[in-house]
Amino acid sequence: MKKLLVFALFALGSVAYAEEAAATGALFNTYTKAVFYFLAVALAAYGGTAAQSRAASVALEGIARNPSAADKIMTPMILGLALMESLVIFTLISVFLI
Question: Considering the entire predicted model, what is its pTM?
Answer without folding.
Answer: 0.58
